What does this fold into?
Amino acid sequence: MQKIVHVRPLDDAIGHEESHDCPCGPTGQGVRNPATAKMVGVIFHHHALEPCHQWEASDLS
It folds into this structure.
């Protein structure tokens, strides 16, 4: 089973959806098990529209 994690800014000018379709256009990065090279998850890093100081990671597996 793959895990999906979203890293979102909390104090941005807009609210960020826990979705890869968020208006900020988050970048997805695959995470692989180094021993097997099998894909084990994806991290979506949301883009802040203004400098932010508070971020949150949410596990949607």
